[in-house]
């Protein structure tokens, strides 16, 4: 099987073939129709979105003379046969000059350009300067360019391309017709790949294309080059999701979903085993972590902003598994998990043992779920899972009032902890929101002190409301009452009564 590289073979040749750039095409068509063609056009967009290709297409449109060589106006659909079109197609047009600003940043380069712009076009209608990476120009170079832009000779057109619009001076921007080239949505990439495959008579699994579209991250050029590679690897067989995954060093999404399911069901052992199988098959810890974070993000969207979820890069099977996870876990657990994985990502990247760092990150994840979903396991006795303020990576929100008191204790906020025990009469507590009455020994600014401390420890917003209601006992009073009740129960016990009868000086104490 022999074929030219798709990116070249299927490079769009006119404005109408530009996939996904309908706005640009519409505006240029209007400009051509109304004969108000701008002197400078600025194309802005991410790497690989097709800025240079678009610039060349615009140049061809501007200069096309028609098959008979006599047209006097630019053409939205250039003829591709006139001298001018042929010149651009073969990169030999004398009036279309491409400059890479990255290697021509200086003022002398711009002066040279300005100088040559004085001479009329030879081959086409306009002399066209395509300046790529224009944000790289020095300040003085921009100033030299500005002089020409302020009074452009009628036969000169500029097409600028940039990835970093913020580095371009306003004086230049204000003289350009600006187009933001749309980042390619996965669905558009997939459609385009399908078109090409149909023309090439090659079959590919839908999941394979979804994987490529996702990896291309908005760049059609990257998508085409990945498709080329996948076809190469597949030989004469169908381009499969498995081959594409191997090619990209990705792990099987099924396995990643099952890792989450196992973890969140508390089966840490099996989850880590699954992870290790992925390592053994050549999985890369950092890439796996990226995928896991991506899955969490997607599940959070699935649960909270379904409108964001219409994402062609996910298969039907993925959706089913995603929904299962979304139903299994409350949003706060998902958010904390994402947060924790995001923070762990840097640890994994910097670790001399990335695989071990990922293991630990996942084990932590299981605990996050435990603390947030099962408050009893964190507040009563199981203090190993309680989180101290010295841990920079996580300080989960306590879900009970007692857990909140514990949190202050572990964060070494002893004074506040004391007031919580002795002076706070609980009215209600929901995660991050305390309503209470206050005893007279509490400081006047107690609510502020408490709020500040809690926010410092948990890195989240808190609400502390003080009300005139001391009807409930403080934690200390509750303990005292409990002790007294136990003592009374003991005194009421027949055996104790008998002992006290025999030894009237004996004392009953509760420890
Ligand atoms: Zn032409």
What do these coordinates show?
The chain is α/β, with parallel strands linked by helices and 511 residues long. It folds into four domains: 6-180, P-loop containing nucleotide triphosphate hydrolases (Rossmann fold), CATH 3.40.50; 186-248, Helicase, Ruva Protein, domain 3, CATH 1.10.8; 253-373, Zinc Finger, Delta Prime, domain 3; 401-472, GMP Synthetase, Chain A, domain 3 (2-Layer Sandwich). 54% of the residues lie in helices and 9% in strands. The protein is built from 23 helices and eight strands. The chain has helices at residues 6-9, 22-33, 51-63, 83-89, 107-116, 139-150, 170-173, 186-200, 206-216, 220-234, 241-248, 253-264, 268-280, 285-304, 316-328, 331-350, 354-373, 375-379, 401-410, 414-423, 446-458, 475-492, 494-502, and strands spanning 40-44, 96-100, 127-132, 156-162, 177-180, 424-430, 433-438, 463-466. The strands form two sheets. The protein has a five-stranded parallel beta sheet, with helices on one face. Strands 6-7-8 form a three-stranded mixed beta sheet. Helix 8 crosses helix 9 (206-216), helix 12 packs parallel to helix 15 and helix 13 (268-280) packs antiparallel against helix 17. The radius of gyration is 34 Å and the shape is elongated. The model is unreliable at 375-386 and 388-394 (pLDDT under 50). Residues 64-65, 78-79, 82, 84-85 line the site of zinc ion (ZN).
């Amino acid at each position: 099987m022999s074929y030219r590289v798709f990116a070249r073979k299927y490079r769009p040749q006119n404005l109408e073939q530009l996939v996904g750039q309908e706005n640009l095409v519409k505006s240029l068509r209007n400009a051509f129709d109304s004969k108000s063609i701008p002197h400078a056009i600025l194309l802005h967009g991410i790497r690989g979105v097709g800025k240079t290709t678009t610039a060349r297409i615009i140049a061809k449109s501007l200069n096309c003379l028609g098959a008979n060589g006599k047209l006097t106006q630019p053409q939205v659909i250039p003829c591709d046969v006139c001298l001018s079109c042929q010149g651009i197609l073969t990169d030999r047009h004398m009036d279309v000059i491409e400059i890479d600003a990255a290697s021509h940043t200086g003022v002398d380069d711009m002066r040279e350009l300005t100088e040559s712009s004085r001479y009329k076009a030879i081959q086409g209608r306009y002399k066209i300067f395509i300046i790529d990476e224009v944000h790289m120009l020095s300040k003085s170079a921009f100033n030299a360019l500005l002089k020409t832009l302020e009074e452009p000779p009628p036969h000169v057109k500029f097409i600028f391309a940039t990835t970093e619009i913020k580095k371009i001076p306003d004086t230049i921007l204000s003289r350009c017709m600006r187009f933001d080239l749309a980042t390619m949505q996965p669905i558009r990439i997939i459609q385009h790949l399908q078109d090409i495959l149909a023309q090439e008579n090659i079959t590919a699994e839908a999941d394979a294309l979804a994987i490529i579209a996702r990896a291309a991250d908005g760049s059609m050029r990257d998508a085409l080059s990945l498709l080329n590679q996948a076809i190469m690897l597949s030989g004469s067989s169908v381009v499969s999701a498995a081959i594409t995954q191997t090619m990209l060093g990705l792990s099987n999404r099924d396995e990643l979903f099952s890792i989450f399911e196992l973890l969140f069901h508390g089966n840490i052992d099996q989850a880590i085993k699954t992870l290790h199988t992925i390592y053994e098959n050549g999985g890369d810890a950092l890439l796996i972590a990226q995928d896991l974070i991506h899955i969490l993000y997607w599940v959070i969207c699935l649960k909270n902003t379904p409108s964001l979820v219409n994402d062609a890069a996910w298969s039907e099977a993925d959706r089913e598994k995603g929904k299962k996870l979304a139903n299994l876990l409350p949003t706060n657990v998902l958010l904390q998990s994402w947060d924790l994985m995001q923070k762990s990502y840097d640890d994994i990247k910097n670790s001399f043992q990335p695989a071990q760092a990922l293991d630990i990150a996942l084990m932590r994840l299981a605990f996050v779920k435990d603390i947030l979903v099962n408050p009893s396991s964190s507040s009563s006795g199981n203090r190993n899972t309680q989180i101290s303020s010295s841990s920079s990576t996580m300080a989960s929100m306590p879900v009970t009032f007692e857990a909140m008191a514990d949190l202050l204790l572990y964060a070494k906020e002893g004074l506040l902890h004391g007031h919580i025990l002795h002076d706070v009469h609980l009215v209600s507590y929901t995660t991050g929101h305390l309503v209470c009455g206050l005893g007279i020994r509490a400081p006047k600014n107690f609510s502020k002190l408490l709020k500040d401390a809690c926010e410092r420890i948990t890195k989240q917003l808190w609400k502390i409301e003080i009300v005139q209601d001391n009807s409930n006992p403080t934690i200390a009073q509750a303990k005292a009452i409990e002790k007294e009740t136990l003592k009374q129960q003991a005194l009421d016990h027949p055996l104790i009564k008998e002992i006290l009868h025999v030894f009237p000086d004996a004392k009953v104490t509760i420890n």
